[in-house]
């Protein structure tokens, strides 16, 4: 079996994924890192030099590749389930269990504020108000895809360790 972590930017997919992988002794794969290695470019460089459409095509290609693997904890990019047939590919992948890590807008704003620069979609937003408004609309659009996940785990007010244990307890 594999666990696929889904959620908005800043929802803790990579941190929780790494923790989970240690607990269950599965390989951890972060799709953004996988793309960066394969393309030999950082995510901001891909967006800047090749554009978002190129990034989405590669994201789709590499998602299909990693979904073939088993016994992995896979953390996706925030947009991965929301393009093309990606969510269907995730739901239909053999042995894959998808989990939506659901965070509130204020906690996403708090976590993303110091990390905006690495994220091309929000790097231009200057004030907390702008970021809050953007996330509000974007999350509303994306929730349609996120909520199709096999399981939803609310992350607000919980430590990484507590979230990881909650997932392990529900699955193993
Ligand atoms: C994106 C999220 C990022 C990365 C890219 C696009 C998105 O991943 O894939 O910048 O569309 O939400 P994280 O969710 O890991 O920040």
TrEMBL record:
Main location: cytoplasm
Record-listed Mg(2+) binding positions: 14
Reaction(s) catalysed by this chain's protein: shikimate + ATP = 3-phosphoshikimate + ADP + H(+)
Entry protein name: Shikimate kinase
Signal sequence bounds: none
Function description: Catalyzes the specific phosphorylation of the 3-hydroxyl group of shikimic acid using ATP as a cosubstrate.
Record note on quaternary structure: Monomer.
GO cellular component assignments: cytosol
Superkingdom of this protein's organism: Bacteria
């Amino acid at each position: 079996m594999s666990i696929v972590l889904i959620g908005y930017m800043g929802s803790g997919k990579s941190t929780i994924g790494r923790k989970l992988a240690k607990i269950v002794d599965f390989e951890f794969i972060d799709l953004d890192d996988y793309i960066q290695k394969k393309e030999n470019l950082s995510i901001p460089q891909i967006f800047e030099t090749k554009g978002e459409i190129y990034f989405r095509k590669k994201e789709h290609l590499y998602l299909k590749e990693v979904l073939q693997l088993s016994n992995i904890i896979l953390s996706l990019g925030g947009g991965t389930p929301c393009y093309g047939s990606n969510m269907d590919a995730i739901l239909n992948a053999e042995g894959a269990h998808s989990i939506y890590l659901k965070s509130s807008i204020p906690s996403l704003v708090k976590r993303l504020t110091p990390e905006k620069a690495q994220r091309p979609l929000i790097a231009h937003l200057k004030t907390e108000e702008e970021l809050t408004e953007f996330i509000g609309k974007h999350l509303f659009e994306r929730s349609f895809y996120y909520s199709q996940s096999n399981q939803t785990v609310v992350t607000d007010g919980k430590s990484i360790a507590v979230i990881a244990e909650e997932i392990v307890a529900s699955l193993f």
